[in-house]
Amino acid sequence: MAKRKTKYVCQECGYETPKWMGKCPGCHNWNTFVEEVVASQTSGARHTFQVEGSLKGKPEKITAIQSEREPRVTTMMPEFNRVLGGGIVPGSLVLIGGDPGIGKSTLLLQVSSQLADKKLNVLYISGEESARQTKLRADRLGVTSDNLYVLSETNLVDIGNQIEQLNPGFVVIDSIQTIYREEVSSAPGSVSQVRECTSELMRIAKSKGIPIFIVGHVTKEGSIAGPRLLEHMVDAVLYFEGERHHTFRILRGVKNRFGSTNEMGIFEMKEEGLREVSNPSEIFLEERSQGAAGSTVVASMEGSRPVLVEIQALISPTSYGNPRRMATGIDHNRVPLLMAVLEKRVGLMLQNQDAYVKVAGGVKLDEPAIDLAVAVSVASSFRDQPSRPDDILIGEVGLTGEVRRVARIDQRVKEAAKLGFKRAIIPQKNLDGWTPPDSIEILGVNTVHDALKATLGGN
Ligand code: TYD
Ligand code: MG
Question: Would strands 295-302 and 305-317 be described as parallel, antiparallel, or unpaired?
Answer without folding.
Answer: antiparallel
